[in-house]
């Protein structure tokens, strides 16, 4: 018996020792930084000594791409291993599909402590063990973006000092160098060389100098993270990664599927495992991050992900990974924007194909309509009045043809589309076929792309399709809040299925449970109907600002009551049809309604309105 106990203790000790030898993982993510804007990638003007040193000590990826050129869709692909359509967060500020697994869930099962510092920008918030430095994860004040309290450094020191029995995965996500940029004295704007896709004006030069200043701040912050790990004595057992989420917010980069919006720096250091000062041309996607980390943590391959582990490339055992990159832009949800989606394929031959689905709609983003940071865009418009190159670059930003094709080997700034050149007809057809296959595989139709995750707006009413959630930022609240009464109508089939019929901006939800209809306000006041016999019928909710409401189904008034407060207005959240955005919608319901919902419409002050 004693021998068995000793043997058991040895086995347990062995497993603990093995667990402790698993590598720590520290990831530093900069925000809106193109690959070209790092010193080790050939930019002699920007100052990035810590990023450059990381490349000297590890491996530099020359062909790393975001799956979307916007913060939330890009970060959602990183943390799920799924393309934006698959995970649901296609538009900026939109949420993941209910039930979508994220990186912390995978790594925690493998014994890791998973923490994030600063910015998250994935909704709903993934289940990290800890959120460090929430104050510098906020958009403003801008002065907080480099964690001036050094909360992340203190966390690293404390975590390793306390000698935990769990390996650490820490993501440090700063807002730097995201706009707004502030002028810095380190660069003389007049001496800068601007990339060819920008209009060369004094204002653009000042903006570039300010952007470089912001990059320098991000670089110093990265240096602090590296030093904290080294000072803790964990350098040898830590995989350190640096990359950005997408390209810089200049016209023709962020928000677009052009090369400068998608191509990002990506550097990995792993002492004793990665040969120092190496580089690779293997094409990788940020969608590969989650499966890679699972692999590095000792986990099994997760079926159904769009990303694939790059472990063998990191270790220098492979020099190829993907034959092409797929990426997309579905734009912002804000009501003042025009919806101009695009999908793209970047092939390892250097050819880049872009499909624009609403080519007749002018392209509008934060750059020219909202933030106007550094106010350089006005100088573009003024210069374009007399300068043909400026006019070309301005039009290139604002107006998109149905198809674009570029050869990145000879046209780095993508200024000469080959889509109309018959010489490249076979190339265009080949890439178009690859794109069609990718879209078909993920189940995204052309109609879905053209429509997007947006409602159909009519005269004081709007419709939302089943399975869709629309962010509150899609609505101009002054126009889409009722004066007296809110109506929700839909034709329901399948009352034998449980689930959420509708959620309205975290104010209330209508649901089916065990053959009864219910409505829950703030989860505090819940009303149920008697059991419903009709398997299909018209549903009508009339809710007044006074709190009086009436719920009808199949011609009968099922609930007539009053709730305390006004629940008719839009607030932060989503209006959803046939699903719940919550991980646990309550009342023992599934995330999705199993029946059929037709013509789900929200109307203001009048029961029905004819589409205009």
What this model shows, in words?
- With 612 residues, the chain is an alpha+beta fold.
- It is 25% helix and 25% strand.
- It is built from 15 helices and 26 strands.
- Strands 1, 2, 3, 4, 5, 6, 7, 8 and 9 form a nine-stranded mixed beta sheet that branches.
- Helix 6 (151-161) runs parallel beside helix 7 and helix 12 crosses helix 13.
- The relative contact order is 0.12.
- The model is unreliable at 1-20 (pLDDT under 50).
Summarize the structure.
With 612 residues, the chain is α+β, with helices and mostly antiparallel strands.
Essential attributes:
disordered N terminus, single chain, 25% helix, alpha+beta, 25% strand, 612 residues, seven-stranded antiparallel sheet
Secondary structure layout:
Layout (H helix, E strand, L loop, with lengths): L1 H20 L2 E7 L18 H9 L1 E7 L5 H10 L3 H4 L15 H7 L3 E6 L11 E3 L18 H11 L6 E6 L28 H30 L6 E7 L14 H4 E2 L1 E4 L8 E8 L3 H8 L14 H4 L9 E6 L12 E6 L3 E6 L9 H4 L7 H8 L3 H11 L4 E5 L17 H18 L3 H6 L4 E2 L3 E3 L4 E4 L13 E9 L5 E6 L3 E6 L2 E6 L3 E7 L4 E9 L3 E6 L2 E7 L11 E4 L18 E9 L8
Parallel strand pairs: 1-5, 1-6, 2-9, 3-4, 3-5
Antiparallel strand pairs: 2-7, 2-8, 6-8, 10-11, 11-12, 12-13, 14-15, 15-26, 16-25, 17-22, 17-26, 18-19, 18-25, 19-20, 20-21, 22-23, 23-24
């Amino acid at each position: 018996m004693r021998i068995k106990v000793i043997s058991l203790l040895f086995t347990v000790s062995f497993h603990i020792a093995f667990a402790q030898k698993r590598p720590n993982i520290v990831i530093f993510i900069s925000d809106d930084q193109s690959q070209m804007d790092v010193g080790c990638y050939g930019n002699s003007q920007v100052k990035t000594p810590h990023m450059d040193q990381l490349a000297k000590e590890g491996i530099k990826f020359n062909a790393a791409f975001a799956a979307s050129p916007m913060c939330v869709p890009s970060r959602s692909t990183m943390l799920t291993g799924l393309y934006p359509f698959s995970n649901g967060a296609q538009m900026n500020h939109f949420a993941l599909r209910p039930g979508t697994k994220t990186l912390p869930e995978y790594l925690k099962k493998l014994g890791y402590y998973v923490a994030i510092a600063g910015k998250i920008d994935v909704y709903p918030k993934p289940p990290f063990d800890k959120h460090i430095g929430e104050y510098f994860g906020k958009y403003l004040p801008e002065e907080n973006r480099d964690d001036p309290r050094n909360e992340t450094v203190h966390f690293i020191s404390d975590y390793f000092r306390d000698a935990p029995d769990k390996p650490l995965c820490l993501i440090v996500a700063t807002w730097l160098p995201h706009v707004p940029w502030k002028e810095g004295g380190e660069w003389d704007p007049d001496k800068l060389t601007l990339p060819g896709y920008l209009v060369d004006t004094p204002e653009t030069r000042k903006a570039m100098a300010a952007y470089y200043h912001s990059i320098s701040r991000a670089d110093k912050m990265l240096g602090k993270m590296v030093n904290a790990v080294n000072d803790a004595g964990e350098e040898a057992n830590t995989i350190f990664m640096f990359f950005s989420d997408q390209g810089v917010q200049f016209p023709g980069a962020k928000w677009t599927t052009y090369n400068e919006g998608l191509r990002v720096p990506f550097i990995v250091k792993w002492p004793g495992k990665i040969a120092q000062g190496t580089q690779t041309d293997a094409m990788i996607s940020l969608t590969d991050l989650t499966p890679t980390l699972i692999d590095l943590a000792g986990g099994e391959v997760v079926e159904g992900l769009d990303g694939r582990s790059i472990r063998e490339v990191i270790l220098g055992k492979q020099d190829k990974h993907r034959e092409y990159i797929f990426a997309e832009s579905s734009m912002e949800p804000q009501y003042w924007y025009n919806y101009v989606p695009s999908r793209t394929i970047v092939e390892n031959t250097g050819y880049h194909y872009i499909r624009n689905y609403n080519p007749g709609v002018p392209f509008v983003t934060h750059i020219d309509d909202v933030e106007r940071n550094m106010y350089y865009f006005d100088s573009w418009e003024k210069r374009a009045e007399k300068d043909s190159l400026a006019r070309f670059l301005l039009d290139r930003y604002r107006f998109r043809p149905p198809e674009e094709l570029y050869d990145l080997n000879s046209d780095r700034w993508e200024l000469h589309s080959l889509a109309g050149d018959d010489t490249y007809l076979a190339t265009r057809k080949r890439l178009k076929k690859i794109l069609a296959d990718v879209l078909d595989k993920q189940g995204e139709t052309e109609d879905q792309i053209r429509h997007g995750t947006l409602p159909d707006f009519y005269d004081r009413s709007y419709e939302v399709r089943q399975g869709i959630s629309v962010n509150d930022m899609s609505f101009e609240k002054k126009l889409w809040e009722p004066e007296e009464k809110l109506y929700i109508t839909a034709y329901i089939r399948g009352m034998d299925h449980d689930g959420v019929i509708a959620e309205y901006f975290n104010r209330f939800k209508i649901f089916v449970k065990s053959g009864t209809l219910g409505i829950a306000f703030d989860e505090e006041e819940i009303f149920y109907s008697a059991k419903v016999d009709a398997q299909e019928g018209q549903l009508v909710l009339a809710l007044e600002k006074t709190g009086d409401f009436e719920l009808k189904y199949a011609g009968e008034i099922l609930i007539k009551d009053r709730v305390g407060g006004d629940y008719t207005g839009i607030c932060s959240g989503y209006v959803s049809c046939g699903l719940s955005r919550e991980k646990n919608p309550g009342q023992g319901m599934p995330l999705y309604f199993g029946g059929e919902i037709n013509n789900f419409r929200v109307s203001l002050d009048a029961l029905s309105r004819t589409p205009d």
